[in-house]
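Bumping with the actual sequence this time:
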Amino acid sequence: MPIRHPLVRAVFLFLMLAAVAPAMAISPVNRTLLGGLAIDGYDPVAYFLDGKPIEGKKAHSFVWNDATWRFATAAHRELFVKSPESYAPQYGGYCAWAVSQGYTAGIEPEAWTVRDGKLYLNYDLEIQEKWRADLPGLIAKGDANWPGLLAEK
């Protein structure tokens, strides 16, 4: 019996293609589907200089590593442009705890940690507590897992 309902047909086709599609590596930067924003449009420099997450402004945008980064001020943008690796979150902005466990997950910009001059983001505040319970150990695991996560999928 043929599938006639357009939505059911679309879901069925998607599932079939997903099952046979070749494996693809993850994007090196966790970005939104619409607009390709890194950190959901939050300013990465603000975590370091202001000690809190601040939404960036479209007027202060910069494209780096196939993602659009937004900044609260032109000065923050310029700092990032000069040294993006100094301000970009670790593990491409994916949840640091998830990477330490061997997979990737999205983030909540309010769940963050700066440790040894590096920004780490987490899925949510509950996961952030797990992350902060063993920062040295989980960072070591995340650092070991990250290259493999980029290469697989």
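The tokens above came from a reply further down the thread. The radius of gyration is 18 Å.
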